[in-house]
Design goal:
The structure is a homodimer. Chain A has 8 helices and 4 strands; from the N terminus they run βαβαββαααααα. By secondary structure, the first copy, chain A, is an alpha+beta fold.
Chain lengths: ~210, ~210
């Protein structure tokens, strides 16, 4: 198996962390990022979706999208379970996983992509067409992350982990998204003490650092 | 079971279509949309995520996010299978499902929300805070949908269904997103003949109309 990877990208880290939590070795890693933080042209030629991560199996199947890759690993290596056992648990885990992605990760990406000088004309991933930055998305993205922090704080006041009483894929996406937010100068707000408690707790797991 | 619903919303239709493809009766439906296309205040009070759809089970569990709800139904009622059987199939189905959501549904939502007069100050769902429209997102959204159409056309030239050789959840999200795009005046491009063939084929299934 081979993972086409950009080490810095939060979406790639989601996959690496998931695999490490499965107590598996990482697949062979191929870095596909070149100068100017751009995907290598030969990678885009072979994978027109033009996004990372992408997993190539030993049989030659190619799977893109972080959670689709994680689903593949969950099915092949069911233990430890990270995506839920019962119907309700699967639903609740996925709800919180998607929320961390849509609100925290995408919100942060809006801030990052629309302000970073290397991303002029690359406002959207997955295409080589020019897509201008939209400065108004910086403020909108900050608002999304700020609202997500408050929502998560309310959840973590009553729950040890993001999706309830045990560690799950929702914690993985939340940590990867939150570290991205912190890097883009949207730290955990001072009054979010349950979130700080969770952040320390999730960072005590070896996979938090191993996945970086 | 009860589904908190906004009949018009593509995300709610995804769930209804999924349930109907399972050959199940729809759950009890509670419409939670009021005047000005706004969620009812009592719904937001009881569900601060402030989004639809949301499923309440007979046991009182509450699951939001369309695909999380579908996952719950897939697990409780495995046949007919819509989310894949093998690890690879699950990965590939989810990849195409997420792509239809991120590129076609969100792209269309960017056009819709940032141009519709009822959505002034509601540029983002899931909050009662004022979030101004960003007119530049209209063009960006149109570009995303246009690129998605081309990507999908390439896939449907070689495959009968969106994720390969059989109908899946990826067809459901794609149809709901595409009908939304068509409504917002982004019809299937004239030169996308494979996509037109697929669109006719998916619309011959009874669930396409039953879910409207």
């Amino acid at each position: 198996m081979k993972l086409y990877n950009w080490q810095f990208a939060p979406n790639c880290r989601r996959v690496r962390m998931f695999v490490l939590e499965k107590q598996l070795d990482l697949p062979a890693i191929e870095e596909v990022i070149g100068s100017g933080l751009r995907l290598l042209p030969q990678y885009i030629d072979s994978w027109p979706h033009a996004m990372v991560p992408m997993l190539e199996t030993d049989e030659g199947d190619r799977i893109g999208e972080a959670m689709a890759i994680c689903r593949y690993f969950e099915e092949r290596f069911p233990e430890p379970n990270l995506m839920g056992r019962t119907a309700v648990e699967k639903g609740i885990f996925e709800m919180w996983e998607r929320r961390a992605y849509d609100e925290c990760l995408i919100g942060t990406a809006e801030v990052f992509r629309n302000s970073h000088p290397e991303f002029v004309d690359r406002g959207i991933p997955g295409t080589t067409e020019k897509v201008p930055q939209i400065p108004a998305l910086i403020e909108r993205g900050k608002g999304r992350v700020a609202r997500y922090y408050r929502k998560l704080e309310a959840q973590l006041k009553d729950n040890q982990w993001v999706a309830g009483s045990r560690y799950s894929v929702a914690d993985i996406t939340t940590l990867c998204a939150m570290d991205f937010a912190i890097m883009v100068e949207m730290p955990i707000p001072d009054d979010c003490s349950a979130t700080r408690r969770w952040y320390e707790q999730v960072n005590r797991r070896p996979t938090a650092k191993q996945s970086l």
